[in-house]
Amino acid sequence: MEFFEKLASLAAKVRLQSAAIQTEEATKNAFVMPFINTVLGYDVFDPQEVTPEFVCDVGTKKGEKIDYAIMKDGEVQILIECKKIGESLNLNHASQLFRYFHVTSARISILTNGQVYKFFTDLDAPNKMDEKPFLELDLLDIDEYSVPELTKLTKSAFDVDSIINAAGELKYVSQIKKVIASQVSKPDDDFVKVFASRVYDGVITQKVREQFYELTRKALAQFLNDQINDRLKSAMSGALQPTVSSLPVATEGVSSTVDDVDSEAKVLTTLEELEGYHIVRAMVRSVVDAKRIVQRDTQSYFGILLDDNNRKPICRLHFNRSQKYIGIFDEEKNETRHPINSVDDIYEYSDRLKKTVGYYM
User: Where's the Type I restriction enzyme R protein N-terminal domain (predicted)?
Assistant: First the structure.
């Protein structure tokens, strides 16, 4: 299974089960241990790899424990402190990690509530854990740029030097992105003034500044939408090019060929459809190899197939109108549409989708 698919599978589990989790211990069993084992690849039942309740004695504090220590060659590499799902992860929750970071050989520490994982190191001062993480992972909102860096923490690819070298850039890029996000939603006076001074020739009075506050927000929103649309068009342009095998034969006439190409060009796959595809793929991977799950978009629906075979439909996503539907197939391949309010509602049909896949096995 590919690394991202492992993350997606655990994310699906978090979505489905988090409401039933009431304690820190349940959080560790349901989400954190699978993250350590399935995603990072460490054997949680081998104390030489993963030590639960790792004892760290500091000064007069004796017998205090860190939830998990990941080991390599007898040395502590990663310390993990867990909180209950839903709890905020602030510096107060990281107090034990701060205390024990400098008395072990660990260069990486993780603070998590099972959904959000914050990764720390010692960039600011040697052997002293930084107050700000160099990497954050939210399983319900995975940043694609964090995935390659996360793989460096896996057992098969663990490279502490590479991680530390990249941590500085990751830390500041992450913080800059947060500043940009904040400015996009609520630009401050200095930010607004930068743009106003470049496009407005008059004196920037308070009234002008207020006008440019709204203009700046609107321009930023439109710019981001344009960038997203351009990326979607670019991503789909290759898929929209007809292959020789898909073109009609010459006997059908040139006009038929043009019509088919025009029809293909009208198909635009949305991010919401792709998210739905990944949700379905993650759910049914327990009964079939995820590589066999293929998406095929059309003008009227977004199809998800087994083995890229139209005779093996798993489901259809009808997202082209305000009311969304998921189409589920029975054993006779009859489609029944079920209304859904959001992509997350697809999780409610997990058993039905697995049953549909079973028809073709």
Answer: 24-121
State the pairing for strand pair 75-82/108-112: parallel
Q: What element of type H or E holds 71? A: strand 65-72
Q: Where in the chain are the domains?
A: 3-179, 190-244, 271-359
Report the relative pairing of strands 302-306 and 75-82 from DSSP bridges.
Answer: unpaired
Strand bridging mode 65-72 / 116-120: unpaired
Phi, psi (5° rounding) for residue 302? -110, 110
What does 165-184 look like in DSSP terms, one character per residue?
Answer: HHHHHHHHHHHHHHHHHHHH
CA-based torsion, 168, 170, 175, 177: positive or negative: positive
| Residue with the two structure tokens 């504090």 | 61
Cα 76 from Cα 99, distance rounded (Å): 15
Mean pLDDT, residues 46-74: 79
Which tokens is 170 given? 């990751």
Cβ–Cβ < 8 Å for 31, 13: yes
Determine the Cα–Cα distance for residues 119 and 111; give it in Å rounded to an integer: 7
- Residue 277: closest CA among 1, 78, 12: 12
pLDDT of residue 221: 80
Mean per-residue pLDDT over the chain, rounded: 82
pLDDT value of residue 99:
74
For CA atoms 105, 107, 111, 115, the dihedral sign is: negative
Residue 248: DSSP 8-state: P
Is 241's pLDDT higher than 50? no
Structure token pair of residue 184: 């996009």
Q: How many angstroms separate the CA atoms of 334 and 326, rounded?
A: 13
How far is residue 284's CA from residue 314's CA, in Å, rounded to a whole number? 10
Q: What is the pTM of this model?
A: 0.56
Query: Tens digit of pLDDT for each residue in 253-302?
Result: 444 443 444 444 456 778 788 888 988 988 888 888 888 999 998 888 99
Give me the pLDDT at residue 43, please. 95
3-state secondary structure of 235: helix
Specify the DSSP class assigned to residue 244: G
Torsion on CA atoms 90, 95, 98, 103, rounded to nearest 10? -160
Q: Which DSSP category does 125 fall into?
A: B
The confidence score (pLDDT) of residue 243 equals: 37
